[in-house]
Amino acid sequence: DARVTQTPRHKVTEMGQEVTMRCQPILGHNTVFWYRQTMMQGLELLAYFRNRAPLDDSGMPKDRFSAEMPDATLATLKIQPSEPRDSAVYFCASGSRDLLKETQYFGPGTRLLVL
Amino acid sequence: AQKVTQAQTEISVVEKEDVTLDCVYETRDTTYYLFWYKQPPSGELVFLIRRNSFDEQNEISGRYSWNFQKSTSSFNFTITASQVVDSAVYFCALRSLIQGAQKLVFGQGTRLTINP
């Protein structure tokens, strides 16, 4: 049963601290997405990668957020320094190689609370 | 610009009732995909269905059915004989193959509560 995995599932940290979230896409999927979900904004796309190359990170605050894909099995989203307004659920999703038929499958999310 | 509107913020019904969740979308592209996702109380997002803009056939999967109408830009979701386990937030989403090919635009979601 192929699934997207995310770690950690929950993270509580203090303002100013660095936060790193990790995602393992479904094996064989070559597109990875990072979304953020908040009550006010709903689900927003932060960034996505195809074949490990960043294609669009326009939804991400550049000054504090960074997203990387060091290899095909790992994507990371880093916040440095974190702020209370970053509190949200962060989802990773992966999509298959077939652009036309692509469906995004979501991980369980990382629930982040910045105090 | 692309937009998805789910006008129903919350719906509450009694078990075994049928319920329809509305989704209206906006796009200037002729080629696009529509999706429904379910987010149960546990928080994960579960893929339910994908539909492309060239296929207006309605689809049925067990108690779930989807009605896609391009004329009204709607992609509604009906649950027949609802069950308590159907309680969740349901999201409709749109993906264009022309603009921002990979980007999913989500509606705000409809919180569905099925009461026993």
Q: What would a concise description of this structure say?
A:
The complex is a heterodimer of chains A (115) and B (116). Chain A is an all-beta fold.
Secondary-structure map with pairings?
The complex is a heterodimer of chains A (115) and B (116).
Chain A (H helix, E strand, L loop, with lengths): L4 E3 L2 E4 L5 E6 L6 E8 L3 E9 L2 E4 L8 E7 L2 E6 L8 E8 L8 E3 L3 E5 L1
Parallel strand pairs in A: 2-11
Antiparallel strand pairs in A: 1-3, 3-8, 4-5, 4-9, 5-6, 7-8, 9-10, 9-11
Chain B lengths: L2 E3 L4 E5 L4 E3 L2 E3 L5 E8 L6 E7 L6 E3 L2 E6 L4 E6 L8 E9 L7 E3 L3 E6 L1
Parallel strand pairs in B: 2-12
Antiparallel strand pairs in B: 1-4, 3-9, 5-6, 5-10, 7-8, 8-9, 10-11, 10-12
Mean pLDDT of chain A, nearest integer?
Answer: 91
Overall geometry of chain B comes to: globular
Oligomer: heterodimer
For the largest interface, the chains and their residue counts are:
A-B, 25 and 20 residues
Euclidean distance between termini CA atoms of chain B: 41 Å
Fraction of helical residues of chain A: under 10%
* Number of separate helices of chain A: 0
Helix/strand structural class of chain B: mainly beta
Low-confidence parts of chain A: none
Overall description:
The complex is a heterodimer of chains A (115) and B (116). Chain A is mostly beta strands and 115 residues long. In chain A, 0% of the residues lie in helices and 55% in strands. Chain A contains no helices and 11 strands. Chain A has strands at residues 5-7, 10-13, 19-24, 31-38, 42-50, 53-56, 65-71, 74-79, 88-95, 104-106, 110-114. In chain A, the strands form 2 sheets. In chain A, strands 2, 4, 5, 6, 9, 10 and 11 form a 7-stranded mixed sheet that branches. The radius of gyration of chain A is 13 Å and the shape is globular. The N and C termini of chain A lie far apart (36 Å). Chain B has 116 residues and is mainly beta. In chain B, 0% of the residues lie in helices and 53% in strands. In chain B, strand 10 (88-96) and strand 11 form a beta hairpin. The mean pLDDT of chain B is 92. Chains A and B meet through strand 5, strand 9 and strand 10 of A and strand 6 of B.
